[in-house]
């Protein structure tokens, strides 16, 4: 990763445009890689934890924020939900529409999740729940979304989000492998070195190793990430930190997998509004 810069909350629009260009450029390869059901990161970590906190009921109307090629929208529809999937990438929305076999259950829209006005046009008090699966760290600003969610959700609604774990999977970490000897045997111990955490930063990175254009990651420590939600009246009432099982095969020694079974690469949280 390169070009690390502190997040400038006063002028996020240029970074927002850069992010949009990146995801439109990468849409095709991302769609091919994730397919209809996602990769193991999604299937084993993100999806189970999100569904546990969400508790989908048949007939629930759910907003999928940053739906990409519709992986989670389709999953929610299969569980009986009525889904509205939005993304600011027209190319990804086209991929989602092309992969959706039951169009009556999902409505896709090209909507910018940083545009509070556009979000509110979806209808106030019209969603039982909202999700954003691995999206917030790709957004130049998140305050407009949280403000809009206070109006979009029904009184008992919730917002379930997943992000790269800010503590253990931020853009500044280094994966470390060390050899130690114990009782005459050489053992390999894998760990995470975290030189930076508290300073919010923007860093280019690759979600997929072969994507054509790096995209900006917006690292926010927990007090800033959750602080935007707390500021508008949300409370955190559910939390999951999924990790790969110890017997999960590692494609590389220093890659997320069984070697890091005690370190969660993902944080999943559930937010609800304080009662009026």
UniProtKB/TrEMBL annotation:
SUPFAM superfamilies: S-adenosyl-L-methionine-dependent methyltransferases. InterPro entries: Methyltransf_11, SAM-dependent_MTases_sf. GO terms for biological process: methylation. Its EC number is 2.1.1.-. It comes from the Bacteria. Keywords: Methyltransferase, Transferase. GO terms for molecular function: methyltransferase activity. Residues 63-161 form the Methyltransferase type domain. It is an enzyme of class 2 (transferase). This is Class I SAM-dependent methyltransferase.
